[in-house]
Specification:
- By secondary structure, this protein is an alpha+beta fold.
- Helices cover 31% and strands 19% of the residues.
- The strands form three sheets. A six-stranded mixed beta sheet has the order 9-8-3-5-4-10.
- A hairpin with a 6-residue loop joins strand 1 and strand 2.
- Helix 1 packs parallel to helix 6.
């Protein structure tokens, strides 16, 4: 199933569900980290997913000393703009998050870029928080490749054992706070609309916001 991205002139696609998912053997939340271009849109998508407890924009792949926007933008820090997602696996599984990530959050066939943004800081990457997540992510990428889910090879990197560092406050909730910002209108609001269309059971109209939690 394809959904036109509108202004970006690309298509979202509902890719198959994971055949192998993360084991859920205990109550409590879990954490996943995804990178798929500018973190504004990736955060905005996951904030609207039922079962997500929080979604924080930040940096992953490099060192703490260089986890700053002006440095990451050089493309030489090893960091990718990323989003840390805390979720309740009884409501949304890691496999569900992966499916949303590949279907609407970004295009996994673009190497070191997403849309208008270029550089390794905008790469497609998954930063597993456990050996189980590594296993599931690798298996899913192989599954999508076998299924020819995309028109080109998937270039998503799996980068284990990499720390996540939250981004500056002004980057948090950017999509929700700036819905009229041209970049958001063109590149990111269509992602949220596609989430609602392709994943109606997992779409949540009211997003979970970083600013709301900070005020608690």
């Amino acid at each position: 199933m394809l959904v036109n991205r509108g202004a970006s002139a690309e298509d979202f696609r509902l890719v198959p569900a994971v055949a192998l998912d993360e084991a859920v053997d205990a109550p409590g939340t879990r954490t996943a980290v995804f990178a798929g271009g500018c973190f504004w849109g990736v955060q905005g998508v996951f904030q609207h997913v039922e079962g997500v407890v929080s979604a924080v924009s930040g940096y992953a792949g490099g060192q703490a000393a260089t986890a700053h926007y002006d440095m990451v933008g050089s493309g030489r820090t090893g960091h990718a703009e990323a989003v840390e997602v805390v979720y309740d696996p009884r409501k949304v599984t890691y496999g569900d998050l992966l499916r949303i990530f590949f279907s609407v959050a970004h295009d996994p066939t673009q190497l070191d870029r997403q849309g208008p943004d270029h550089g390794p800081q905008y790469r497609s990457a998954i930063f597993p928080r456990s050996a189980d997540q590594t296993r599931v992510a690798k298996a899913y990428i192989e599954q999508l490749g076998r299924d020819h889910a995309f028109h080109a090879p998937i270039v998503t990197r799996i980068e284990a054992d990499k720390a996540f560092y939250p981004a500056e406050a002004y980057h948090q909730d950017f999509l929700e706070l700036n819905p009229g910002y041209p970049y958001i209108v063109i590149n990111d609001l269509p992602k949220v609309a596609a989430l609602q269309t392709l994943f109606p059971r997992q779409y949540r109209a009211k997003p979970v916001l970083v600013s709301a939690k900070a005020g608690q």
